[in-house]
Amino acid sequence: MVASDSPENSLPMDTPCVKICTLDHASGLCLGCGRTIEEIARWGALSDDERRRIMAELPARNAPPRIAAVE
């Protein structure tokens, strides 16, 4: 078994940045990657678990808003 902090698992997690760095003032999220300004600023200092959690949340954050059906 390989420990999570062993050299075999020490590859840094990629950043979700797509070089479209514009914050949406209403949501507080980057229009490119979906992260908050705090997440962007702290990305390098976050643990792998924190980065994985954020990465898992990004698809929902970046999804287009659903429009409720009108009856």
Please, could you describe this protein's structure?
- There is one protein chain.
- By secondary structure, the chain is mainly alpha-helical.
- The chain contains two helices and no strands.
- The protein has helices spanning 37-42, 48-62.
- The protein starts with 36 loop residues before the first helix and ends in a 9-residue tail after the last helix.
- The model is unreliable at 1-8 (pLDDT under 50).
Question: Which characteristics define this entry?
Answer:
single chain; 30% helix; elongated; disordered N terminus
Provide a brief overview of the structure.
This protein is mostly helical and 71 residues long.
Number of helices: 2
> How far is it from the N-terminal to the C-terminal residue, by CA?
56 Å
Shape annotation: elongated
Strand portion: under 5%
Summarize the amount of helix as a percent range: 25-40%
**Mean model confidence by pLDDT:** 84
Structural class: mainly alpha
Largest sheet: none
Task: Give start-end ranges of low-pLDDT stretches.
Answer: 1-8
Number of DSSP-assigned strands: 0
Radius of gyration: 16 Å
Spell out the helices and strands N to C: HH
